[in-house]
Amino acid sequence: NTAPRALSQSLTLKMNITAEGFEIRSVWDCRAEIKNPVLRVGENGETEFSGMLCGCVYGKNADGSPFCLEKQEAFRQALSSSDLNENTAAQFAAKITSADFSIKSDGAVEISAITELCGVLHDVVAAETVSEVTVREDKPKAGNDEFALRICYTDEKSDCWSIAKAYNTTVKALMEENDITDEQAALSGMIIIPTV
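Above: the chain sequence. Below: its structure as tokens.
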């Protein structure tokens, strides 16, 4: 199946936040966010959603002082989707639509974050794009005896590949003549174009 498929799923992520050195009397609010979300096929073939869950709790301790507790922890959760395999690329977004809390019997605050996943799944297919290359020996490249080199003024949009193509030279010769170390770097200013 190579047609793009919609991804839409809701799940609940949970984490516990504990207070160190004081007792929680009440909680006013909480929030949660997801960092570095990843969708992948796990070792047993099921689809996994993973990342970092960051939670924050605001409230009042037993002395009446306000507090803010933060925590982040890694999560990994299996999804019910069977549309993902090792040849699938996912373009998706993960958004927490609501976060609720409850105070557990041990004093920890449990945050429950309702998370919506939405996006598109594509199958990645290997394809042969160049099947054959033939050298046209009956049409050799015309030499240029008028000059040994040329000078070119470039802007920031130019790189070695585009200049070599435009002036019918090689990237290697261009880099050697101008002491360029990175063929992908943007070039700016005067460049010497060697004739090859």
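The chain is about 10% helix and 55% strand.
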